[in-house]
Amino acid sequence: DFSSINIYLIAPINFWFALLQISTMSSTTKPTILLVPGLWEGPTVFAQVSTLLEYSGYSTQTASLPSTGSLSPGNPNMNDDILSIRVVISQLVQSNKEVLLVLHSAGGFLASEAMEGLSVKKREEAGLKGGVSGIVFLAAGLARVGDKHVKRPFMDTINAPKGGMFCINPRESLFNDISDQEAEKWMKRLKTQPAEDWNGVTQYCGWEDVPSTYLVCEKDELLPAEVQVQMAQMAESNIEKCEAGHMVMLSMPKRVVEVIRGVAGG
């Protein structure tokens, strides 16, 4: 279970050296960072990023997708994932917190839809404090309003349990820029996604209402860099780049934190 893994056991030594290079600052004026994973991976892929951010004075929270780890039929669907993320965002903004969303892979379009009506601007218009102030996309999939989500070439139902769906060749698709030892560890922690009933239609795009930054991962074998750039341009995102694969939070956590802090203001 991803949620039960002690982050101190999974962080490589060079991560802790990176941690020592980041200064501690007050969190009084900093946004809360909400981290949202993509398919298969679960929330602890953000453990190193979360620790680095908290050391820098940020409060962090990580959402989960109810569909991850489930099988069809009767599985949580795309709308259930969106609602689950929305509950987390709502709890934060109702506590008058400013929230910066950090969205990986499929978390990009899921959380973008989940924030409807919860931006700082919308909250201010209602005389309320708090709200989503911006988005950082990490090799994220984005969609326009009206887009229907369909199975992609990297989705594997043949080698998965009945009713489940895996990522095709995860060593190359997801973990192509980390060591064999690390890749083996993380591949064992991947979970199924449901094979059916996860094909909803996008109803809202949060990037239309708040500014965004997109970290393009140029060695990504799952979502090619040129596709990432197209999505970033569609969202009118500020574009940052790095030489990482799809799981950038594992291979380059310090770079991810650098981008987040640049957006959050230090």
Oligomer: single chain
pLDDT averaged over residues = 91
Question: How many domains?
Answer: 1
Spatial strand arrangement across the major sheet: 2-1-3-4-8-9
Q: In percent, how much strand structure appears in the residues?
A: 15-25%
The separation of the N and C termini measures: 33 Å
Query: What is the CATH topology?
Result: Rossmann fold
Number of strands: 9
Give the class from helix and strand content and strand pairing.
alpha/beta
Description of the structure:
The chain is an alpha/beta fold and 266 residues long. It has a single domain, classed as Rossmann fold (3-Layer(aba) Sandwich), CATH 3.40.50. The strands form two sheets. The protein has a six-stranded parallel sheet, sandwiched between helices. Strands 5-6-7 form a three-stranded antiparallel sheet, with no helix packed on it. The N terminus is likely disordered.
Provide keyphrases for this structure.
single chain; 266 residues; alpha/beta; 6-stranded parallel sheet; 3-stranded antiparallel sheet; 33% helix
What is the topological layout?
Elements: H1 7-10, H2 13-20, E1 32-36, H3 47-55, E2 60-62, H4 78-93, E3 98-104, H5 107-114, H6 120-125, E4 131-138, E5 155-156, E6 164-167, H7 170-173, H8 180-187, E7 193-194, E8 212-217, H9 225-234, E9 238-242, H10 248-251, H11 253-264
Short description:
This protein is of the alpha/beta class and 266 residues long. It is built from 11 helices and 9 strands. Helix 3 packs across helix 11 (253-264).
